[in-house]
Amino acid sequence: MTIPIAGPRGRAPALGLTLLLLACGADAPAEGGGAQEATAAVELSEPVVASGLSIALPAAWNRLEPRSAMRMLEAEIPGAGGPGEISAYYFGPGGGGGAAANVERWKSQVVLEPGAPEPTTQSRESGGVRRTWIELEGTVKASTIGSFPTTDLHDGALFGAVIEAPGGPWYLRAVGPGATMREQRQAFLAMLDSARPQG
Fold first, then answer.
1. Per residue in 15-43, pLDDT tens?
2. Which pLDDT band holds residue 69 (cuts at 50, 70, 90)?
């Protein structure tokens, strides 16, 4: 399974729009805007179906056994900077605090570089699914609940996403060295775009 996604990293507000317009059609606006850019292809694995959601991991990512009943999936994210990790959480219908609260929580987990612009939240709705995500770079603080990283991760990045669909929401938290996460950013967005309600 291959999904076309948007090109280079320097135009973050436009990338989510480009990705999702290409793959899903323009049935709802995304935050940000801009012209379509050159595209590349991301190969996805067969979808994982759990807790009412179908979502496809990038084929290059290594699926792991979830370490908690609240985690519907986990995977190692390979890359030039060293491995990262992603976990997808499900707390039951309406659980987990919602998109806005989780975006603020993810912001609190990353110390931005001095002078770095304030990250913006992006969102897109299509196929009965609303995806809200934020990309943060800087020092990712050590997790206090046993998640990755266990020590402060300098020059790191955290991509957080909320997927809202019937029976949800689901929360995805991807963390790794900045070089790895920048390299895997398009794959992360393609994975978000693959999300569909189970059925």
1. 333 333 333 333 333 444 332 333 368 99
2. confident
* Preceding omega of 169 cis (within 30 degrees of 0): yes
H or E element, residue 100: helix 99-108
Contact assessment for residue 54 and residue 197, using Cβ atoms and an 8 Å cutoff: yes
- Confidence (pTM): 0.80
Q: Are 192 and 42 in contact (CB under 8 A)?
A: no
Q: Cα separation of 197 and 10, whole Å? A: 31
CA within 13 Å, CB half, 81: 18
User: pLDDT of 130-160, one tens digit each?
Assistant: 999 999 999 999 988 767 898 999 999 999 9
Count of all residues that appear for the chain in the document: 199
How many Å from the N-terminal Cα to the C-terminal Cα in the chain?
Answer: 19
Write out the two tokens for 140.
């990712």
CATH architecture of 48-197: 3-Layer(aba) Sandwich (3.40)
The Cα angle at residue 170 between residues 142 and 121, in degrees rounded to 5? 70
